[in-house]
Design brief:
heterodimer, A: alpha+beta, Immunoglobulin-like, four-stranded mixed β-sheet, B: Nonspecific Lipid-transfer Protein, Chain A, Rossmann fold, 4 domains, eight-stranded mixed β-sheet, 31 helices
């Protein structure tokens, strides 16, 4: 049985909101009987985009996490719904808009904040994967069609085939530490949003003139081991990515230039990770 | 029956017999069409009318009686018909009435009075439109258009400034609006081969985010659905002008509204004389060549004679007033052409420098996300990227690379320091400088400090820009050793840095940098892959600035191509008075102002200063406003609110789709419909005119028949219809319309383009779009400036500069006096060599509103930049209860109100006790705006960012004198010209302070 999944590449999302707005175009003011009642004009975010800035001026990067309903295979909302939330054979999770009437408790049932309360209609609502369109012959939901960067895509394949893609592409799900709900929404480059990064720049003074130090070797280690090593770019900049977010250790940074250790920097436990300029 | 055969036939005495037969045939055709076409039958029921077509000597003719939907006719020419069409001779009559219609013959006959029509204007127009229906289509109904999808759903096509769209309609209501996905029969795509890889764009069009908000805008609760009148405005009594912006409105009938407006047009012309009517509009409008402000509106405003509001080149400023003097390019207001640059950049470039350039936010202009995939290709090829912008913009965030954040409004300081490194380290193209440029010695001496004692070193620029000297030095060395594309602005020749007190110096220093690096050599050019796709630049379809049906030969591009291709009655405005858009408030309040024109014809066009009032003209007494609001877009916009409330302005009419912004300052409101509710025709991103071949931002040229998807909402009408209804009250309906409907004009424009060579009208009307196939590689436009770098003749496909503007031979050299890139400008030496604000050589001139103004800076220590918004297009798509308001990065909902956003650095926020999402008051001596704060490290401390373009103007007290919680950031920006000898805006030279604000405070 082929099933649907979202594949979202965090590195390609630029927060254009085409997904968010095309979803509203499809669902605000439009009833899709058997799928969902109309989404209110304002307030709900079936595609909810979160922003994360890392670093500090001027050493930063920004990532966005587009979060639709995860269409979990083991969905807490289905358990809480007692028949009001259904899993279709193609993997899509739908809230029955008649049976779920008055069931505000479903909003809290979702660990990902993907269910919204329609105050006027007294019904919980969420992303339907545009199942009404897929059933009508569309190959993708509106958000995916609207995405201009290739950040959003959809897969339609068996679970076995999907598992292979997940493995080879290194896809992840959000909140992997949280409850195991078997999400059908997979992310690529999720570390851009979830991991920590250390930024810095190496500079020096030669004959009274300041210069960026390109090609310096920067080594990052914690008390137990070497973590990574890289060379500074033409601006003397370096960035260590994919570091665990809530670290418990002190980092040590060693700068090697022209075969000698030119600087050593300790990064204390709660210190900012944008190191600014390190003069050697 | 064409050509010589017809001429021979008509030369003899048979002509009259032919005419008699033809007139009888018209009768038969009307009867037949009424039987087979229900819509034609309904049309005949609209009026009871008698019409006569005859020869002037009454020797031949026919009288038609239309009564209760039936037609009868007689050869008798007695009675007193409602409409009389008189021909001098039978030959002319036959030629003009025989299909296919020949517009040029018709116009010639009209101009020479070989044909004349008499009667009430409304009757004439109705009769002519009815006659057209006989010719335009087959005997059956208007051919069905759109694609039936079953279940009562029809998919239509339309267009927007954010891309072409499919519009799904059911039961007369729009269901959804989507991008267009091409099918196999649509024109082929291009492929670029670069560095061992092949790149082909996706077979679809992209759209801007706001396009998905359109349905919510069409059905917005803020739509104007009925004509309205301010409750305390009485055209025959008290006008209460001071209550504009304060008083409410009441619904009136169309007849009453049109009578008031037509009556006021007549009154001010008789009472005050020429010039008393001022017509003004936003720079952009809904999409299409027919209903556009440079088309129907211009034709109407010319027809009634009105003062022309001159637009400053607001997107170009520094390029128009500065860079143009160093490299020409007047046709694009001083910006560059970009032919072939996508292919060249992908094949050759090693680095792209984005300088004040964020195409991922601004879409260039009309470019949607077409450039995104091309930049992703560049990223995948490992082309280095550098982003110079005070804001860590969305292009930088998506593509990565080095971010360099100068203090805003520091002009060319960093550019001079880059040049300093190049000169002292020998990192520039000395051969190119010697052969292709003039004035380098003066530039070099200035950069090195030999002429003024101040070497423009990286250290020198550091206290000005706050960018470390070593970073500038490193950038200069990389740039000087790598083949580099420079993109100043999202479109090369735009950029927020050009809209600042130092914008002229910045823009022209960009040209000088590229003059040092060999502009036009492989991999060395302007742009960031936003423009320059290898689409077919030889296929003609007009852009909106080519004037559509405007008949305007002065302020549109009509005279270049469209006047010949689509002959039409010229609408020549007899009023020559001009009003600078940025001085409208002074014109009204003080009765006097001056300006400099926006004239893309030549470099010198901008030197011709004009004054208001023009000699012998009346000051403006009536304001006909149309399109977007100035509050969100024009500098120091409290001035506009104050001007509206002046008694000097006796009457204000606003023709608007929504009740927003300036519409709330009108005496009478005329409700226009969106372009989803009327007919139009237009190509995506084709603006023509001052942005020649702008469509090369698109991966495919998409030309659309803009279907009338639904009926106009409420009592709203199309802009064309509103102007026609007014024209009929002024006896101008026949001249205005040439007896044509909007759909007739669409077809006439279709026929004027190259479309008939590749498709038929019926096919185009049905499908709704045509994708122009990509040309063979041999027919791709050459790379811009390659010819120049190689010392050849200009070979890119455009007739610019004008032949007379070449100095040696046609197509040889640039538009400048020397024909070369000029470090020191010849045109400025001729015009005002001693102007300290704009010396002929690019010079460091501190901003007149920046950190050098010690006293002002002490009070207002924050530099406010206000770039173009990302989720709206100026005031279009913002506010109006649209879904765009919900975008987290566009507005923030606080206590039931969607507040505009100001972004500031965390340090600045902490110093002021400002929390994330809290309300703040941004203020200076000019005004105050209430916004929601977003805290970020995407800005340096001391710089704050809040885009222009709020459609909502909501003063919390007296309009023009109180804080605005709508978000019109331009309440804060200076109205001063960049330099005195210009008509320009310096919106990014704006010092402010910010403090916390409590909801509900006064």
């Amino acid at each position: 049985m082929k099933k649907y999944s979202f594949i979202i590449d965090v590195a390609k999302c630029e927060n254009c909101n085409n997904c968010f707005l095309s979803c509203k175009d499809e669902h605000c003011g439009n009833d899709w009987p058997g799928y969902s009642k109309s989404q209110p004009l304002h307030g709900q975010r079936w595609m909810n985009i979160e922003t994360r800035e890392r670093g500090a001026f001027p050493q930063i990067d920004v990532a966005y996490l587009a979060k639709p309903c995860q269409h979990c295979d083991d969905a807490p909302c289905i358990r809480a719904g007692q028949g009001a939330v259904v899993k279709r054979p193609d993997g899509i999770v739908l809230i029955d808009q008649e049976l779920a009437k008055g069931r505000q408790n479903l909003v809290a049932a979702c660990p990902y904040g993907a269910i919204w309360w329609n105050e006027e209609l007294q019904v919980p609502q969420k992303c339907t994967f545009c199942a009404h369109l897929l059933d009508d012959g569309w190959r993708q939901p509106r958000c995916v069609q609207a995405c201009p960067t290739g950040a959003l895509s959809v897969l339609h394949m068996t679970d076995e085939e999907l598992a292979e893609v997940v493995r080879t592409e290194g896809l992840e799900t959000i909140d992997s530490e949280g409850p195991a709900t078997k999400q059908r929404c997979y992310y690529k480059n999720l570390h851009r949003f979830t991991s920590a990064a250390i930024f810095g720049s190496i500079a020096t003074t030669i004959n009274g003139v300041t210069e960026c130090v390109a090609g310096a070797t920067v080594r990052l280690q914690d008390p137990n081991r070497m973590i990574a090593e890289q060379e500074t770019d033409d601006f003397g900049d370096f960035k260590f990515d994919r570091l665990p977010p809530g670290r418990s250790e002190v980092y040590e940074l060693e700068v090697v230039f022209q075969k000698r250790v030119a600087a050593k920097v300790q990064i204390l436990k709660d210190a900012p990770l944008a190191l600014g300029t390190i003069w050697i | 029956m064409t050509g010589r055969l017809v001429d021979t036939l008509l030369a003899g005495p048979q002509a009259k017999k032919l005419l008699q037969g033809l007139l009888l045939g018209i009768h038969a055709a009307m009867k037949a069409k009424a039987r087979f076409s229900p819509s034609f039958g309904r049309r005949l029921q609209e009026k009871n009318l008698s019409a006569q077509i005859k020869l002037r000597d009454n020797s031949c003719g026919r009288t038609y009686l239309i009564k209760n939907g039936t037609v009868s006719s007689t050869a008798e020419l007695t009675g007193n018909p409602d409409v009389t069409m008189i021909f001098t001779d039978a030959a002319t009559a036959v030629k003009l009435m025989l299909a296919p219609r020949n517009y040029l013959q018709q116009l010639n006959a009209m101009k020479n009075f070989r044909v004349d029509v008499q009667g009430a204007d409304a009757d004439i127009v109705w009769f002519m439109q009815t006659m057209n229906l006989l010719q335009s289509f087959s005997f059956a109904e208007t051919p069905p258009y759109g694609t039936g999808l079953g279940d009562g759903v029809t998919r239509y096509v339309n267009n927007t400034n954010g891309g072409p769209v499919f519009v799904y309609v059911k039961d007369g209501r729009i269901l959804r609006i989507t991008p267009i996905e091409f099918d196999d029969s649509d024109g082929r795509s291009w492929t670029i081969h670069a560095r061992g890889r092949s790149f082909t764009p996706p077979r679809k069009g992209t759209v801007n985010p706001y396009v998905f908000a359109l349905r919510s805008l069409v059905y917005s609760k803020d739509r104007l659905l009925y004509p309205m009148k301010r409750v305390d405005f009485d055209p025959n009594g008290e006008r209460n002008c001071a209550n504009r912006g304060i008083s409410g409105y009441e619904r009136i009938s169309w007849d009453e509204a049109l009578d008031i407006v037509a009556g006021e047009i007549k009154r001010v012309k008789k009472q005050h004389g020429p010039g008393a009517i001022m017509n003004g509009s936003g720079s952009h409008h809904t999409w299409g060549n027919i209903g556009y402000w440079l088309s129907a509106k211009t034709r109407f405003m010319n027809s009634i004679g009105s003062s022309h509001v001159v637009h400053n080149p607001d997107s170009w400023e520094g390029w128009y007033w500065g860079a143009m003097h160093h490299w020409g390019n007047s046709i694009r207001n001083g910006a560059t052409d970009t032919y072939g640059t996508v292919e060249d950049c992908l094949k050759e470039a090693e680095m792209i420098v984005f300088w004040s350039s964020d195409p991922e936010s601004t879409s260039g202009v009309y470019g949607a996300f077409e450039g995104t995939v091309r930049r992703q290709w560049a990223q995948s090829l490992g082309i280095k990227m550098v982003h110079i912008d005070p804001y860590y913009n969305h292009t930088a965030a998506l593509l990565g690379g080095k971010w360099i954040a100068p203090r805003p409004d520091t002009g060319g300081a960093m550019a001079f320091a880059i040049a300093h490194v190049w000169i002292t380290e020998g990192l520039y193209d000395q051969d190119y400088v010697r052969k292709r440029t003039v004035g380098f010695e003066k530039w070099r001496d200035y950069i090195l400090g030999e002429s003024d004692g101040v070497p423009k070193t990286p250290e020198w620029q550091e206290p000005e820009t706050n960018v470390p000297a070593r970073v500038v030095r490193s950038l200069a060395r990389q740039w000087g050793t790598k083949k580099t594309y420079l993109s100043p602005g999202g479109l090369a020749g735009f950029g927020g840095a050009c809209r600042a007190a130092t914008g002229i110096e910045w823009a022209r220093s960009m040209v000088c940098l590229m003059a040092m690096q060999g502009l036009g050599k492989p991999g060395i050019n302007m742009g960031c892959l936003q423009q320059g796709a290898p689409v077919d630049t030889n296929f003609y379809f007009p852009g909106y600035a080519e004037g559509g049906l405007s008949g305007d030969l002065d302020y549109t591009g009509l005279r270049v191509s469209m006047y010949q291709r689509m002959p039409q009655l010229p609408s020549m405005n007899s009023v020559s008075q001009m009003i600078p858009r940025l001085r409208i408030p002074e014109a009204i309040l003080n009765g006097a102002c001056e300006g400099y024109p926006t004239d893309p014809k030549s470099i010198e066009g901008q030197f011709k200063k004009f004054t208001y009032p023009a000699p012998g003209h009346s000051p403006a007494k009536m304001y006909y406003k149309y399109g977007g609001s100035h509050f969100g877009t024009m500098a120091d916009s409290n001035r506009y609110a104050r001007a509206y409330r002046s008694d000097n302005l006796e009457f204000v009419v606003n023709q608007s789709i929504w009740f927003e912004g300036e519409a709330k300052f009108a005496d009478v409101l005329l409700p226009a419909c969106t372009n989803f509710e009327r007919w139009d025709i237009g190509e995506t991103a084709n603006s023509g005119g001052y942005s020649h071949q702008q469509y090369i931002q698109w991966n495919h040229r998409v030309i659309t028949m803009q279907h009338k998807c639904i009926e106009p909402l409420g009592e709203s009408r199309s802009d064309y219809q509103i102007f026609l209804d007014l024209a009929a009250r002024l006896g101008l309906g026949t001249l205005f319309s040439e007896g044509m409907t909007e759909l007739d004009w669409c077809r006439r424009l279709f026929e004027a383009s190259d479309l008939p060579t590749v498709t038929s009208w019926n096919k185009f009307l049905k499908k709704g779009y045509y994708v122009v196939p990509a040309p063979d590689e041999a027919n791709r436009a050459p790379v811009s400036y390659r010819w120049f770098a190689e010392g050849g003749k200009k070979n890119v496909p455009e007739l610019s500069p004008l032949p007379s503007d070449y100095k040696e031979e046609w197509r040889k050299g640039l538009q400048t006096q020397s024909g070369k890139l000029e470090f020191e400008s010849s045109s400025l030496k001729r015009f005002a060599p001693d102007d300290p604000e704009r010396p002929p050589l690019p010079t460091f001139i501190p901003s007149w509103e920046g950190h050098h103004n010690k006293e002002l800076y002490a009070r207002y220590p924050l530099n406010l930049i206000s770039p173009h918004p990302r989720y709206s297009f100026h005031t279009m798509f913002d506010g109006k209860d649209a879904t765009v308001n919900d975008v987290k990065d566009h507005r923030v909902l606080v206590a039931g109100w969607f507040y505009w956003i100001v972004r500031l650095n965390r340090e600045d926020a902490a110093q002021r006790s400002i929390a994330e999402g809290s309300l703040v008051r941004i203020f200076n001596d000019r005004g105050a705006v209430i916004c929601a704060a977003k805290l970020t490290d995407r800005l340096p401390p001391g710089t704050v960012q809040s885009p222009e373009g709020s459609a909502v103007y909501a003063p919390i007290g007296e309009p023009g004198h109180s804080a605005d919680r709508g978000g019109c950031i331009n309440l804060l920006t200076p109205s001063r010209n960049i330099i005195a000898k210009s008509h320009s805006t310096a919106s990014n030279s704006c010092l402010v302070e910010i403090e916390p604000w409590q909801e509900g405070a006064q």
